[in-house]
Amino acid sequence: MKIIYALALLFIFISCSEIQIESEPKTITSADTHIVITEFQTILDTTYLTGSILVYDVEEETYYSNDFEWAKVGQLPASTFKIPNSIIALETGIVKSDSTLFKWDGEKRANKIWEQDLLFKEAFHYSCVPCYQEIAREIGYERMNTYSELYNYGTIKVDSITIDKFWLEGDSKVSQFQQIKFLKRFYTSRLSISESTEDIMKRMMIIEENAKYTLSGKTGWSFYNQKDNGWFVGYIETKEKVYFFATNIEPTEKFNLNRFPRIRKAVTYEALKQMNIIN
C-alpha cells in the first residue's frame, strides 16, 4: 500500500508540474535586425552633413542606417512634435477637425506664409509655429505631460513657463528609434486614440501620393545652443510593404544653410531610392 500511495503522489506531482510549465507565459524578445548601409553615409558626406538616416522594414523587422549610435541619441523634436501635438489637440477637443480655422492676429511673423488665416491642416503643412504655440497653451503643461507619457513619445520636459517652446528649446528629447516606434504605434492603431483623430492625422500627414507609393511625415528644425538640427520622419506605403523612416542631420561648416529646409527631405528620398523603395 505504501508503494502504491507513493506512486500516486509522484503521478500527481508530475501532472501538476506539467500543467504549471505549460501555463507559464512565453518571453517575447525583439527580433529586430540592424544592417549598416554605407551608401547612406555617402549621401550625407557628399552633402556636407553629419547625422543618421534610419529606415525600418516592418515585414522584415529590420532597421537600416549609416549610424545606429547617432540614431539612439535624443534630440529636440522641433516641428516633428506637431504630430503628437496635433493628436493631443484633437483628442482634447481643442481642435475639432482639420478644417478648424486659426485667425491671424495681424502681427508680423517669422515666416511670411504664416501671415494669414490658416486651416488646421494648412498650419500643419506650413509648420506654423505661432498656431501650434496657441494650441500648446490651450492644452496646458499638465495635459501635455500626461498625453506625452501616454503615447511614450521620447522624454518631454514641459512646465507652465516652457509650454509654448519646449519642442524648440530646452531639455525635451526624442531619438530616431523612438520616432519610428511612435509612428509605428500610430500607424497600426495602437496609440489609444479615437478613430476620428487617427483618420484626420493620416490625411494631414500625406506629403506625396502617386500610383507607386504614398509618403507621409513631418519635418523639423531646431536652433538651440548654437546648433542647427534637422528632422524628417514618417512612413511610406508601397503596394507591397510599409517602411518607417527617421532622418536626423546637422550641417558641417562647408554646408550652405540656405539649403537646410530642402535637404532634410532630399537625403531621405535618396536613401529610399538606394533601397529601391522608390524610384
SSE order, one letter for each helix or strand: HEHEEHHEEHHHHHEEEEH
Oligomer: single chain
CATH topology (level 3) name: Beta-lactamase
The mean pLDDT is 90
| Physical arrangement of strands within the biggest beta sheet | 1-3-2-9-8-7-6
The DSSP helix count reads 10
CATH class: Alpha Beta
Say how many strands there are.
9
List the helices and strands and how they pair.
Blueprint: H1 2-23, E1 33-36, H2 38-46, E2 49-57, E3 62-65, H3 68-72, H4 82-92, E4 101-102, E5 118-119, H5 120-125, H6 129-139, H7 141-150, H8 176-187, H9 195-204, E6 206-209, E7 213-224, E8 227-238, E9 242-251, H10 260-274
Parallel strand pairs: 1-3
Antiparallel strand pairs: 2-3, 2-9, 4-5, 6-7, 7-8, 8-9
Notable features of this structure?
single chain; seven-stranded mixed beta sheet; 21% strand; 9 strands; globular; 40% helix; 10 helices; alpha+beta; 279 residues; two-stranded antiparallel sheet
What is the gist of this entry?
The protein has one domain: Beta-lactamase (3-Layer(aba) Sandwich). It is about 40% helix and about 20% strand.
Folded structure, characterized:
It is a single chain. The protein has 279 residues and is α+β, with helices and mostly antiparallel strands. It has a single domain (32-274), classed as DD-peptidase/beta-lactamase superfamily (Beta-lactamase). Helix content is 40%, strand content 21%. The chain contains ten helices and nine strands. A seven-stranded mixed sheet has the order 1-3-2-9-8-7-6, sandwiched between helices. A hairpin with a 2-residue loop joins β7 and β8. The longest helix has 22 residues, at 2-23. Mean pLDDT is 90; it is low at 1-29.
